[in-house]
Design goal:
Blueprint (H helix, E strand, L loop, with lengths): L10 E3 L7 H12 L4 E8 H4 L4 H8 L5 E9 L3 H11 L5 E6 L3 H12 L9 H15 L4 E4 L9 H12 L7 E5 L3 E2 L2 E2 L2 H18 L3 H7 L9 E4 L8 E2 L4 H12 L5 E5 L19 H19 L6 H28 L6 H24 L6 E2 L2 H7 L3 H15 L2
Parallel strand pairs: 1-11, 2-3, 2-5, 3-4, 6-11
Antiparallel strand pairs: 5-9, 6-9, 7-8, 10-12
Helix pairs in contact: 1-7, 6-15, 8-9, 8-12, 10-11, 11-13, 12-13
Amino acid sequence: MADFHQNGNIATLHNLRTKSLEEMTYELETFAQSRKISLILPCLYSELEGPAMPNILSELKEVPYLHRIIIGLDRADAAQFRHARQFFSELPQNHIVIWNDSPRMLQLGERLGEIGLAPEEPGKGKNVWTCLGYLIACADSSVMAIHDCDILTYSRELLARLTYPVANPNFPYQVAKGYYPRIGEGKLNGRVTRLLVSPLLIALKRVIGDRDYLDYLRSFRYPLSGEFAMRTGILPDLRIPSDWGLEIGILSEAWRNLAPHAVCQVEIADAYDHKHQDLSEEDASTGLSRMSTDICKAIFRKLAADGTVFTSHVFRTLKATYYRCALDVLDAYYNDAKMNGLAIDRHREEQAIELFAENLMRAGQIFLDNPQETPFITTWNRIHAADPSFLSEFRAAAAADEAEFS
């Protein structure tokens, strides 16, 4: 699957199959002697009972260059937190399980609520934000990586390739975004990227004209991947979205805060499969339906912040243009799948496009009705400015939870 194409917007680091995992691991161990590397795992308790997490744990046990692993645990009660601590106790690295629903953590959340800085909704964004706060409080890592906990095809090579661009002190990259082909069980996956994001960016360029931001997003081969690595100096000012726009939001933050040469994408796997979300045609508040709406809103908000004027007429034109672009893109994906012996349900793909087109309009109307909506969680720099003792007390609360349930 390797190539060596560069589009000129951001660096693309390919897997040319010329360096072994052992060699890369050795280099990362060398880098880690002076630039400590930490890993964040935003995790639902249910994922500990799924098929992916045991293999992820087995692979991570063999990673020698990690200084710390921070597991953010959502949707767990006290007994489940105790079980999670036992589950992760096999890790030889320094690690901690942060119980996001513990009484201590809820009390700290109320404390932020009193000054108007608490995250407004639970979810992956808040989980990631919490873990970043703990990492910032530790103040001992130079590099942070993050990946999902439902990866069925996980191997430690994924982590090595994700981490390498920002861990290598000779590289200029502050942010590395992972990419990979979305195939599994003989099917072509990745519907939201293929059928929403890619044609939407093409349609936006046709409707509102050239924008550097659109070219930037179009440079990413898999913009919705949950795999990032960053140098930790940028974390205190990072605005984390609380909704399904998390991945697009982080890319937008990199666009806002960094020069293009400081951002890269890196090929981290030959195949990638994980838990699939339902399309959820009947319920716009869940599944890919909710995800598509939040992603559209995230893109519209960023473009508006850069000076693009949106009206109901623009959104109607955008919907029609998107629909035509999506059908054209579907033709290409359909032929690609067939040529490679992969299954693709043309009817269901077109149903997804129809749903995404409606959600594009819904996102546009929500944006017009609430132009001041800002679903970003407060940056940790602002938290520290408002409550200088919060980070240290947050770290102490996480340690107290672990001690109580040891």
